[in-house]
Amino acid sequence: MNIQVPTALLDGSVLALLAKEDTYGYIITKAMQDLLGVSESTMYPVLRRLKKDGYLETYDQPFEGRIRRYYRLTATGQEHLTEIKAAWGDFRQAINSLLEEK
């Protein structure tokens, strides 16, 4: 079953991944593909939007003769992640109460 991932959950997933460590686009994309089935063509616009909104920043590092662009969570991004986690907790609790067998 292929379900459309809501923007807030996709954002929260990316921010949560980057809260653990800085990493580059391919690793983020691969993690989201494995976890949520999100395509590469979806992920790079998400990363650009999160950067434009001030939740992420980038820096470049040389790697095997090439440059890798790394993404890092900003303080604003950490605050946004905290908000998404709180909203997710409320949503999860509401859905669980609906799905529980009586």
Task: Write a brief caption for the model.
The protein has 102 residues and is α+β, with helices and mostly antiparallel strands.
Note down, in words, how this protein is organized.
The chain has 102 residues and is α+β, with helices and mostly antiparallel strands. 63% of the residues lie in helices and 18% in strands. The protein has four helices and three strands, in the order H-E-H-H-E-E-H. The chain has a three-stranded antiparallel sheet. A hairpin with a 2-residue loop joins strand 2 and strand 3 (66-73). The chain starts with 6 loop residues before the first helix and ends with a helix.
SSE layout and pairing:
Layout: H1 7-20, E1 23-24, H2 25-36, H3 40-52, E2 56-63, E3 66-73, H4 75-99
Antiparallel strand pairs: 1-3, 2-3
Helix pairs in contact: 1-4, 2-3
Q: Name the average pLDDT.
A: 90
> What percent of residues adopt helix (DSSP H or I)?
55-70%
Number of strands: 3
Q: Detail the poorly predicted runs.
A: none
How much β-strand is present in the residues? 15-25%
Largest sheet: 3 strands, antiparallel
Radius of gyration: 15 Å
> Helices and strands, in N-to-C order?
HEHHEEH
- DSSP summary: helix tally: 4
Shape: elongated
Overall structural class, as computed from helix and strand content, comes to: alpha+beta
